[in-house]
C-alpha cells in the first residue's frame, strides 16, 4: 500500500494470489535445479545453487504463511523453569494417553527429560534384570504404514494409489504424520506433541556445516538432501493436482520446513515390524522410540497383539534404559539418527574400486564383475580380510581367471587362491586403502587435534568425529601409522580418485 494519502494498494486477495504464484515459481525452479544435479561429488556449484533455491523457497513460503496469518504467534521467551514446566506438562498428557490406551509402564520406566546431550530418554524406575519385560505396546498404539493406509483420512486415496507413495513407505508415513500433526482432532496428538522439534541429522545442516563432513558420510548426506527435495517437489505437485483442502491441512500449509520435520521424525524413529502375510512394514512406536542407543542385542519383538520390549541388560534404578538399534555403521547412525558412536563394533566404510583399463586382463575382470566400479565394504570387525575376496580376483593371473565364472566367483575368492596370489592381494589391498586415505582433505592427526576445540559446536564435532573414525578404520585395516600422513590444507572433499586404478568413498543404505 502506498504511503500517499488517498491511494489504495491492491486488495489482500490479489496480494495472496501473487504470493501463491511466487511460491509455485520457486517450487518449479527448485525442481528443475535438483533434477539437473548429477551424482553429487562434494558440495559443488550446482549443489550450492540448488541449496540457494531451497532457501529462497522457504523464505517465500514463510512470507505467504505470514500474509495468511498462519505463522505461530511469537511468544515471550520462556525461562528455564517455564520450559521445564511445559515439557513436564506435555509428558504428563502423553503418559495419561498411554495409560488410557492400555500401555502400562510406570512401575518400571519413567521419562528422562533432558538426560544430557541426547535429549529425552527412558530411565529405570527401579532395579531391572536382563531379559525382564519392560513394556507391552498394543498394535493399536503403533503408528504404522498400515494405520495410515487404512485410516479414514482425506489423504487415504493418495497414500494407496500414488505410485511413489506405494513404493516409498517412509515417505507415505511422513505425509500421514504431517496430516495428523495438522489435524486438530488427531488421536495421535499427545504423541506428536512430545516428538522432537529440532534434529541433529545432517539433513538439517547448512552448507558450512555440511562442508565439515568428508568421505562416505558427506556423500550420503548430500544424497539424502537431494532426494528429500525431490520428494517434496513431487508431493507438492501431487497435492496441488488433487486440490486437497481439508481442515487443518492445505497446500499452503504443506511447506518444505513442515515436510522436513515429518520426514526427519520418520527417518530417526522408524522401525520395521511384521505386517500381514509375513511382510514387514514401517512404523513409529510411541514411548519405546524414546530409548537411546548402546551396544547390545535386539530385545524388542513383535507378535499379533503388539510389541514386547525387554531389558537387554540389567539397569540400576535411575539409570538410563538403552536399546540396541542394530548393526549400523557410524555413517548411517549420523545421517539417520543424528549421533556418532565411538565404540561402534559394527562400523564399516563402503568404498569403490575403479578397474584400470590399462590392466591387460581388464576385459576378463570386467566380464566377471559386469562393471568397472566395484563396491566393497570394509568392516571394522574383520579389517583387511573383509576386502580381500575382491583383491584376490583382481590379483589373479590369466590362468587363474580362466577358472572363475560368475557362478563360482564368490566361493573361489572367499579363500586363498595360491600363496603368491594371497601375498599380492594383501599388498594391493593395503595400497588401495592407503590411497583412499589420501583422498581425504584432512589427516587423522589434524582431526584429532581439532576435536578438543570444537566441543561446544555440536554439528562440527559430529562431523569431525565421523570423518576421524572413518579414517581410523581404514588406517587400522591398512596397518598405516597416522604419524606418516603429511599435513593437508582442509578443502571441500573430492570423492573421486584422480589417479588410475583406485578408490572413491561411497554411500550407505537407509536404516531400518
How would a crystallographer describe the biggest sheet?
A: 4 strands, mixed
Count, helices: 19
SS-derived structural category: alpha+beta
Question: What overall geometry do the principal axes of the alpha carbons give?
Answer: globular
Number of strands: 15
| Rg measurement, Å | 26 Å
As a percent range, the share of strand residues is 5-15%
In spatial order, strands of the major sheet run: 1-2-12-9
The average pLDDT score comes to 88
C-alpha end-to-end distance: 53 Å
Oligomeric state: single chain
What is the share of helical residues? 40-55%
Low-confidence runs (pLDDT<50, min 5 residues)? 1-7, 490-512
Give an account of the 3D structure:
- With 512 residues, the chain is α+β, with helices and mostly antiparallel strands.
- The protein is 45% helix and 12% strand.
- It has helices at 12-36, 45-67, 80-100, 145-149, 156-161, 163-167, 169-182, 189-193, 207-210, 215-242, 256-269, 330-337, 362-369, 388-394, 398-402, 409-413, 419-438, 444-450, 458-478; strands at 109-112, 121-124, 133-138, 143-144, 245-246, 249-250, 271-274, 280-284, 292-293, 300-303, 306-310, 320-323, 348-354, 373-379, 503-505.
- The strands form five sheets. A four-stranded mixed β-sheet has the order 1-2-12-9, with no helix packed on it. The protein has a three-stranded antiparallel β-sheet with strand order 3-11-10, with no helix packed on it. A three-stranded antiparallel β-sheet has the order 4-8-7.
- Helix 7 packs across helix 11 (256-269), helix 14 packs across helix 17 (419-438) and helix 17 (419-438) runs antiparallel to helix 19 (458-478).
- It is globular and about 75 Å long.
- The model is unreliable at 1-7 and 490-512 (pLDDT under 50).
Amino acid at each position: 500500500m502506498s504511503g500517499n494519502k488517498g491511494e489504495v494498494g491492491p486488495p489482500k486477495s490479489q496480494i495472496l494470489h501473487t504470493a501463491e504464484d511466487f511460491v509455485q515459481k520457486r517450487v518449479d525452479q527448485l525442481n528443475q535445479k535438483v533434477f539437473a544435479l548429477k551424482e553429487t561429488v562434494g558440495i559443488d556449484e550446482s549443489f550450492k545453487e540448488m541449496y540457494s533455491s531451497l532457501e529462497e523457497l522457504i523464505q517465500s513460503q514463510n512470507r505467504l504463511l505470514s500474509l495468511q496469518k498462519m505463522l505461530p504467534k511469537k511468544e515471550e521467551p520462556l525461562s528455564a523453569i517455564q520450559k521445564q514446566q511445559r515439557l513436564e506438562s506435555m509428558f504428563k498428557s502423553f503418559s495419561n494417553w498411554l495409560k488410557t490406551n492400555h500401555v502400562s509402564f510406570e512401575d518400571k520406566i519413567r521419562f528422562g527429560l533432558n538426560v544430557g546431550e541426547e535429549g529425552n530418554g527412558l530411565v529405570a524406575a527401579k532395579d531391572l534384570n536382563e531379559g525382564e519385560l519392560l513394556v507391552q505396546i498394543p498394535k493399536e498404539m503403533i503408528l504404522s504404514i498400515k494405520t495410515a493406509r487404512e485410516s479414514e483420512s482425506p489423504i487415504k486415496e493418495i497414500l494407496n494409489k500414488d505410485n511413489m507413495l506405494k513404493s516409498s513407505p517412509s515417505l507415505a508415513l511422513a505425509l500421514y504424520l504431517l496430516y495428523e500433526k495438522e489435524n486438530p482432532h488427531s488421536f495421535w496428538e499427545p504423541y506428536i506433541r512430545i516428538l522432537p522439534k529440532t534434529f541433529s541429522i545432517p539433513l538439517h545442516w547448512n552448507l558450512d556445516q555440511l562442508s565439515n563432513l568428508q568421505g562416505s558420510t558427506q556423500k550420503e548426506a548430500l544424497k539424502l538432501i537431494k532426494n528429500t527435495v525431490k520428494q517434496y517437489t513431487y508431493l507438492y505437485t501431487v497435492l496441488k493436482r488433487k486440490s486437497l483442502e481439508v481442515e487443518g491441512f492445505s497446500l499452503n500449509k504443506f511447506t518444505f520446513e513442515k515436510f522436513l520435520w515429518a520426514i526427519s521424525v520418520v527417518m530417526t524413529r522408524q522401525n520395521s515390524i511384521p505386517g500381514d502375510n509375513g511382510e514387514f512394514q514401517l512404523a513409529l512406536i510411541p514411548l519405546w522410540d524414546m530409548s537411546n542407543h548402546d551396544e547390545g542385542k535386539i530385545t524388542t519383538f513383535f507378535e499379533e497383539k503388539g510389541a514386547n520390549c525387554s531389558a537387554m541388560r540389567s539397569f540400576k534404578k535411575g539409570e538410563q534404559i538403552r536399546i540396541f538399534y542394530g548393526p549400523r555403521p557410524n555413517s548411517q547412525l549420523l545421517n539417520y539418527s543424528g549421533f556418532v558412536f565411538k565404540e561402534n563394533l559394527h562400523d564399516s566404510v563402503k568404498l569403490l574400486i575403479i578397474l584400470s583399463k590399462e590392466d591387460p586382463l581388464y576385459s576378463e575382470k570386467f566380464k566377471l564383475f559386469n562393471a568397472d566400479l566395484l563396491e566393497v565394504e570394509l568392516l571394522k570387525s574383520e579389517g583387511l580380510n573383509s576386502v580381500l575376496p575382491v583383491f584376490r580376483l583382481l590379483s589373479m593371473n590369466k590362468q587363474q581367471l580362466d577358472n572363475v565364472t560368475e557362478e563360482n566367483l564368490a566361493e573361489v575368492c572367499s579363500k586363498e587362491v595360491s600363496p603368491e596370489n594371497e601375498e599380492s592381494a594383501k599388498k594391493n589391498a593395503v595400497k588401495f586403502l592407503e590411497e583412499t586415505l589420501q583422498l581425504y582433505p584432512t589427516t587423522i592427526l589434524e582431526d584429532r587435534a581439532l576435536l578438543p576445540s570444537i566441543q561446544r559446536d555440536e554439528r562440527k564435532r559430529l562431523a569431525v568425529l565421523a570423518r576421524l573414525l572413518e579414517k581410523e578404520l581404514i588406517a587400522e585395516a591398512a596397518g598405516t601409522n597416522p604419524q606418516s600422513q603429511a599435513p593437508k590444507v582442509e578443502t571441500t572433499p573430492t570423492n573421486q580418485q584422480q589417479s588410475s586404478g583406485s578408490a572413491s568413498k561411497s554411500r550407505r543404505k537407509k536404516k531400518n
